[in-house]
Amino acid sequence: MAVGVLALQGSFNEHIAALRKLGVKGVEIRKPEQLQSVVALIIPGGESTTMAKLAEYHNLFPALREFVKIGKPVWGTCAGLIFLANKATGQKTGGQELIGGLDCMVHRNFFGSQLQSFEAELLIPKIAAKEGGPPSFRGVFIRAPGILEVGPEVEVLADIPTPSNKTVHSGPSVESQEENGGSENKVIVAVKQGNLLATAFHPELTADTRWHSYFLKMISDVSEDTSSSTVSQSTEDLHFSEPPIYDLPIYQQQ
Fold this sequence. Notes:
The active site is at 78 (nucleophile), 202 (charge relay system), 204 (charge relay system). The protein has 254 residues and is α/β, with parallel strands linked by helices. The protein is 29% helix and 26% strand. Helix 1 (12-21) links the parallel strand 1 and strand 2.
């Protein structure tokens, strides 16, 4: 089994090293035809605008969208999360092209600049239940995005308190906190939807490989689902009825 790692820019080497620890071969992906040789794909963190320009230059977007649509497992970390989102806001002037498929609204650089990068303990009950280990994970956030809204088919895997200077739209995440008697708003930082996994933080920069192990198990799960249903049925929940939205409010970089 070979797992592809998009190697245009960013922390792709760290993902490959984490896969190696788990006995899995990671393959650097830079051209569309290389996707045919892998069973799954990781889109690493990095500078999302630069990655998008390089992906467009290599004509990767059509192949990446097809990879998602046919049900192959894809995990996006940080910039990769932005790529997978159906909607993104807070982009630089001119925006950037997205892959889409993940029914959520993402804010690019929600947590601020490079200087505002931080680490935080995340409660990950669903990951811990499947992978073992402690109930929390030390998340590394580097100029990280935040997930503002999610669709009904999206499973929330982790969230953290919203910074005092930020607001999130009213959505399932906020409502769930209110229903549980909590007054503190939270922003979502990890989700799963069908064959798609996304994290706003960088698991590849830690020694904890549980997120990589969780993703590898998704490959087996998706393969089993595909064998018992048609491809069209397995992709109905990905909300590709409309193209990804790129023309949301633009962040004017200072």
